[in-house]
Protein: Transmembrane protein
Organism: Phytophthora sojae
Amino acid sequence: MLTDTVPIFGYRRRPYMIIGWSLSFISCLLMAALPLGEPYYTDPSLSDIATVDMTPEQLATLNTDAPNRGIKLIILMMIANFGTVMAYSGFNGALMDVSQREPEATRGTAMGDVIVVHYIFMVISSFMTGIGLNSEAYGGTYSWTMGFNAIMWVCPAMSFLTIPFSWYCVQEVKGERAEMPVLPFLYNLFQERVIYRYAAYRFFYTVFSTITVTSSSAIQSDWAKVEPLNSGIASMLTAFLTISGTYLVKTRGLHWNWRHIIIVCEVCVVFIDAIPTLLTIWDVYRSQWFWLGVPLVAEVPFAAGDYVAQLFMIEIENQKGFEATLLGLAVTTQSVGSPFATVITKSVDGYFDIGRTFIEQDNHHVRSQVTLAYLIAYAFNLVSMAFVLYLPKQKDVIHEMQRENRKSKFWGVVTICYLWPGRS
């Protein structure tokens, strides 16, 4: 909203991109320079031993002050993340402007290209962290490591390089701005039938589809024995498969039924993920590559479904000047749902014995508890498909709904009410 309504020196996109990447640069530079301190486990071999089973001598080696030293890094990470969000907000406005100028038959291609490039660089990032953070101190097997500080030196370098590209490679007309204040615009926007239905779909679908199990990381490290290197390789493959899913829809599926795509994708994601999860839980077959590899297949439908959900906002017409706000709305309605999913996940899992101390016991009772938790999560994930009915089938349906211009103050206020608690 800020980039649409408050130009800086007459420009609405590029200055915010530069300020955002500058914040990221400064924060990452400070993290690179600050000493990391001693880890919690000064002896890495103790990380596989439950605290209750340690001897007094072993307990004495634990660095209990380690979490306190991390507060500075957490704050700097928050500032760096805020900077990237600001930079992306400016870029999203420029992306929306370009996308809406595309011919209807190929509209969404530019957004697909951006997603593909984004994940190509994620491959490089995953490769660096997977190789560079694979020493024993990080749960890996290498005798050497880049270390956290070295990784952080790369981050400010990349942020700094992005700054000139943000100015010279993004074109915008000086002096353009929104024609009305943003709050009246949003109030009127949420009353539109096409918008409040989309917001309901995006919010509730996210809440139900992202419910998971709190013990997944403990299972990955204790039962599947996943090493950082292989986790990094899996992240690289995830990025490649995400590119594949996005490219498939971009080249062949721009006119497919959006509801059908998301329903098929959600079913595939759940059932593909369930196979290695249940076999690992019951020790039928435990392998880090089985745990990591099989769910990778689900990344293709997941990426396709996520891309389809973003295509909606490109089709919203007659909102000149609020391009970044519209695309930000698509992101916000999704991100606001995530905290609710986290609360539900923790509330449900609180009734089961699936904490790390229980995972370390690895007995029949714990396996049964973990299985029940996963089955409940999968049930929630499948229920999310019901909210796809709020999503239009295709772009022509969106245009028809806009021509009808049906509005409802009641549903507009309801939408604002359930989005407001998670606005931060």
About this structure: The mean pLDDT is 83.
